[in-house]
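Q: Please design a sequence for this.
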């Protein structure tokens, strides 16, 4: 399979030579990679520790128990399911475990910064359930009065609070009051901010919510996967909560757990318990503050959204990529265009901070971004829908040949060369 190993080397070079500003990405340690690439991938273990449907699971049981114990210690929760294959099935499992298909659930809509699995019409969470969606106000902030009004009118079984592209803090207490007023479960999806919660730079949802989901591969710096956590508050409200979550994952939604991932999660949770991890997250937030200020935007966490003009997000993503800077196009609050041709870009600092970059580096990065924005300021997405795909193709080719962008790419490469790539260089 030399072709695949060759492609892996190429991807390693891409990661090394570029600036990774996608806020949901990060670099794992060598230890996490080692566990992930281990022979644990060979084993089947449907079921849970002590209750498996396959033999030979004594050691797997110990690994899963260790991962559960470490993640509960990390967040201060009382029960954990570490088997979800990723964030999306974890969220669907919570819906299926706590509400019947066809019943009402509520979450933030995609264009306001919620995730697809918080009830978007194109997601199974929006197809299997009657999803009521709240948005943000003119300032881009969640309006709890609107959330309360929608909750009162629709009586959802579950209210979701979580973010994928929302640069402000979440008010878990405010959501709890609303959930209590209608007897709903409150679920927090902290996939993006999990590391910030661990480090104490974002309030923890644990005192307020019943259930928490989080991916493990973003600010937590673990393998691609997810966990579902149950709080003491949740268990007090519903003593069967853990059982409902467990059976929603297996046999409800999944088969055998990915044991190599479970082991890698345990390694990452142990790393996240260290004081170095806390310092790392504090730096992520400091870096985000500087990057946002330099770009003339706001953030209260690790990510930010920049409005780049109606429908221009894709163009900016392509031009930045040609300059060695990776971001993703993103809808902005009160979006005037569409999710595929949105008006913004989303940036974040978790990955570049893992490489060791600090506040002064953010100023350099912001300057490059501004140069790229200037370089393409005269380009606009065609108004006619049927011309767009071709325009994008030509634009991409033009950007790849643009001498100014090539020059920035070289500067970026020289700059990133000074920072080791975790998991590869250290
Ligand atoms: C808040 C949130 N929840 C869930 C997910 C889904 O995770 P996955 O891509 O692992 O399915 C994401 C992914 O970006 C997310 O941001």
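A: Design:
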């Amino acid at each position: 399979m030399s072709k695949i190993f060759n492609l892996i080397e190429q991807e390693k070079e891409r990661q090394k030579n570029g600036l990774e500003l996608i806020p949901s990405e990060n670099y794992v340690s060598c230890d996490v990679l080692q566990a992930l690439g281990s022979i644990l991938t060979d084993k089947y273990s449907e079921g849970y520790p002590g209750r498996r449907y396959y033999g030979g699971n004594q050691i797997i049981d110990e690994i899963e128990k260790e991962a559960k114990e470490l993640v509960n210690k990390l967040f201060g929760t009382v029960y954990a399911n570490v088997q979800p294959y990723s964030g999306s099935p974890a969220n669907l499992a919570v819906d299926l475990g706590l509400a019947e298909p066809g019943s009402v659930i509520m979450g933030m809509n995609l264009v306001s910064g919620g995730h697809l699995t918080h009830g978007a019409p194109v997601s199974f969470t929006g197809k299997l359930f009657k999803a009521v969606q709240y948005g943000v106000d003119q300032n881009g902030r969640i309006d709890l009065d609107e959330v309360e009004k929608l909750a009162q009118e629709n009586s959802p079984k579950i209210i979701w609070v979580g973010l994928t592209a929302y640069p402000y803090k979440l008010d878990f207490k405010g959501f709890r009051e609303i959930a209590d007023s209608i007897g709903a479960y409150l679920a927090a999806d902290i996939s993006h901010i999990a590391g910030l919660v661990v480090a104490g730079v974002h309030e923890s949802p644990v005192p307020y919510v019943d259930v928490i989901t989080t991916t493990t591969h973003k600010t937590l710096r673990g393998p691609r996967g997810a966990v579902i956590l149950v709080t003491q508050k949740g268990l007090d409200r519903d003593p069967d909560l853990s059982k409902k979550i467990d059976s929603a994952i297996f046999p409800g939604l999944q088969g055998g757990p990915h044991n190599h991932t479970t082991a890698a999660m345990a390694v990452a949770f142990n790393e996240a318990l260290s004081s170095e991890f806390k310092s790392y997250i504090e730096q992520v937030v400091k870096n985000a503050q500087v990057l946002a200020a330099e770009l003339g935007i706001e953030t209260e966490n690790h990510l930010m959204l920049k409005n780049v003009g109606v429908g221009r997000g894709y163009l900016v993503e392509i031009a930045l990529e040609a300059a060695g800077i990776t971001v993703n196009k993103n809808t902005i609050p009160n979006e005037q265009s569409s999710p595929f041709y949105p008006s913004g870009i989303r940036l974040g600092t978790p990955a570049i901070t893992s490489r060791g970059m600090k506040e002064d580096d953010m100023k350099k990065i912001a300057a490059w971004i501004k140069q790229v924005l200037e370089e393409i300021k005269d380009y606009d997405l065609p108004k006619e829908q049927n011309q767009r795909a071709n325009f994008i193709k030509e634009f991409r080719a033009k950007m790849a040949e643009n001498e100014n962008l090539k020059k920035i790419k070289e500067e970026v490469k020289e700059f990133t060369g000074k920072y080791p790539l975790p998991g590869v260089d250290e």
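Q: Thanks. Anything notable?
A: The CA atoms of residues 12 and 424 lie 8 Å apart. The chain has a mean pLDDT of 97.
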